[in-house]
Design a protein that fits this description.
The protein has 352 residues and is of the alpha/beta class. The chain has eleven helices and twelve strands.
């Protein structure tokens, strides 16, 4: 059986975009008239064979009925306004690793005073969300006990909403105990890199809770994910994964509160990461907000080689702006102020 996928492409921005949408020569991306598209790439997958073609949106009616039905359904989701973006067109998720061994900032903020100071700095620098983690999930990292992980983040989680009530709180954890305890203190987002598979109690813990849930893709585990990762077609394999995991949440009262994260660097090599980023707009046809975390990732080093830097700020910003140009709106980053500055300048330039 042949399966079809739809990717929005050939984007327009600012006043030109609004004009094209008004004259029906382009369609708004995620309900935002400031970014639109007038072409789609249609992928077809028949077992292991994948082909694609790009057509103008005005030619959709000339497609065979079986393809047209799927494309029209996808476009409705692509053009749908995202609930998460009612007031803003981009969100920055500041990273707070309260661990001794995270890949780039382990040990820097694992004390309460330092952590609170760092949170305050990130919020003042433009962070809309703070993502707090007490366990490293870098390649080759070791699993720690739930009790130890909770102890690392406990005091900051308990104080967070009292001190930073207007900022969204995300807990980066694979453990149901940490999720359950965080929910008691009004956490807004559960960010589990295992997509609720590491701990069997995780799904029960979040079920029927009014929380945003990150559906995150990872091949393997942090211990195994970078050992020769393989895909039939990384873009479509991740799409199928998202589709399957979202379907599992359909019985959940708050199943629409979903964010998709393709998991850059989690069980992917350079080729995989570049394909995801290059055509990341394919995931808009699933109808949910999309989050990416490219900050300081290894693929930047693999591209820049002799021009690598400790914080990889240039590569991070480039990947963020490229993704923003495809309608991605949530970015998990370390260097909040610099990324915020880059986005503000970029948006000003393209939206004129």
């Amino acid at each position: 059986m042949i399966k079809y996928y739809t990717r929005a492409c050939n984007f327009y921005y600012g006043s030109l975009s609004k004009k094209l949408v008004k004259t029906k020569n382009a369609l708004p991306l995620c309900g935002d008239k400031r970014i639109s598209f007038n072409q789609i790439e249609i992928f077809s997958k028949n077992k292991k064979k994948v082909t694609s073609k790009i057509i103008n949106i005005k030619k959709i009616n000339f497609l065979p009925k079986s393809i047209k039905t799927k494309v029209v359904k996808d476009i409705k989701k692509i053009t749908l306004k995202r609930k998460f973006f009612n007031k803003k067109n981009h969100f920055l998720m500041g990273i707070l690793n309260m661990t001794p061994d995270s890949f780039s900032d382990g040990g820097k903020f694992n004390l309460k005073k330092k952590a609170i100071k760092r949170i305050d700095e990130m919020i003042k620098s433009g962070a809309d969300i703070i993502d707090i983690g007490g366990e490293s999930t870098r390649p080759g990292s070791k699993i720690i006990l739930s009790e130890i992980e909770w102890k690392r983040v406990e005091m900051v989680i308990k104080k967070f909403k009292k001190q930073f009530s207007r900022t969204l709180l995300s807990i980066d954890t694979r453990k149901s105990l940490v999720m359950r305890n965080s929910i008691k203190y009004n956490v807004d987002i559960i960010n589990d890199v295992s997509c609720f598979k590491f701990d069997r109690e995780s799904i029960k813990t979040i079920k029927n809770k009014n929380l945003w849930k990150v559906v995150h893709h990872m091949q393997g585990t942090p211990q195994t994910m970078q050992i020769d990762p393989k895909y039939q077609h990384v873009l479509l394999d991740i799409y199928d994964f998202f589709e399957k995991e979202v379907a599992k949440l359909k019985k959940d009262k708050f199943q629409d509160k979903i964010i998709l994260d393709p998991g850059i660097g989690f069980g992917k090599n350079l080729k995989h990461n570049l394909m995801i980023l290059n055509k990341i707009s394919i995931f808009h046809s699933l109808g949910f907000p999309i989050l990416i975390g490219t900050s300081r990732k290894r693929f930047i080093n693999q591209i820049s080689k002799n021009f690598d830097t400790k914080e990889r700020l240039g590569g991070t910003l480039s990947s963020v702006l490229f993704s923003l140009s495809q309608g991605i709106n949530i970015f998990r980053v370390h260097n909040v102020k610099e990324i915020k500055q880059g986005i503000l300048v970029f948006e000003t330039l393209i939206n004129r």
